[in-house]
Amino acid sequence: MSGKNPVFILTCKSNNIFPKSFYICMMSKFKRYIFNPDTLTYEVKERSAGARFFKGVLLFVASLGMAVLYIWIYSSVLGCDLPKTAVLKKVNARWSLKMDIMNSQLDRYEASLEAIRVRDDDVYRSIFGMNEIPEEVRNAGIGGVDRYSWLDEAGSGNMLKSTKMRLDMLSRKTFVQSRSFDDVTVLSKRAGDMAQCIPAIPPIDPVPGTYRISSSFGRRTDPISGRTAYHEGVDFACNVGNPVYATADGVVEMVQIESYGYGKNLIIDHGFGYRTRYAHMDKIDVKKGDVIKRGKYIGTSGNSGKSTGPHLHYEVMYRGAHVNPYNYYDLAMTHDEYMSLIAHTNE
Fold first, then answer.
1. Mean pLDDT by 10 residues, the chain (347 residues)
2. What pTM does this model have?
3. Quick one: 248 exposed, middle or buried, by C-beta within 10 A (0-12, 13-18, 19+)?
4. Is the residue at 342 inside a domain?
5. Are residues 220 and 263 in the same domain?
6. How many domains does the chain have?
7. What is the CATH number of the domain that holds 265?
8. Please, what is the angle between helix 83-119 and helix 159-188, to 10°?
9. CB–CB of 276/202 below 8 Å?
């Protein structure tokens, strides 16, 4: 016998010693040797290339099927993760834990920043008469709609994208808050000047019996038309010729005479958003562009323009809006207190 890896197959189908069906087969890699009992020789039976290829394909498909079946039983039936999946899950769990820690820190930072915002709007900016920063400015987004598109591959609910957006928003809010503090710092350095520019005294000497408030700030019935209208100032009913004083430092912005309306009137720009108007006067002793101090004598009350009697109409405007003058002055001060405030200005 010759050939690689010979294989002997013996088949017996009777009690005869050498039946015709008895054969011995020797196989090599590509040949099969069959013993012929009639000729007592080994005959070569070659396998075709197609048969060999078919057998190889069949073995491959069978192996692949067994592998798929194993994976299905391992993962679906037994509920186990594949090795690579298990490793990826562990890595993902570690990163998810880190993202959770980062979001917890962002929660604390946002709470701290919100507390700072409240103090900024309700205390610092309020003290110096500054408007609150609008929410749309504080919460303004950063970049365009495609700024985070590179994170969309992880899905719409992925934690990485939401954390990145939170971090950018927090950075934006911090920047806006920093700029706000810069503005407050600049204004605080001018606090002394600002204090003198707030209209904090009455426009006339509040001696009891020399005046009365004939019309307050707010909605009222117009004394001429009889219709309900909004009164934008306070009317001090007093005799014609009663001295009128500037209620804060500033510059005379306008002096005009109207045959109707405010009559003889003037506006003083005090800076820091404050302006005051003095109307229905009899005489004006300042002119446009004059720089004046608080308590400066500016003229006398009268009965000019749209008026039903002698009085001084006084308005306070802050950042373009009329506000109630009563919130700024104190009519309870004595004559001596009032004169001590204005005496040095008119010396």
1. 43 44 46 74 71 80 82 71 74 82 88 87 75 80 61 63 82 88 81 83 94 91 76 95 96 94 96 93 96 95 92 94 92 92 75
2. 0.52
3. buried
4. yes
5. yes
6. 2
7. 2.70.70.10
8. 20
9. no
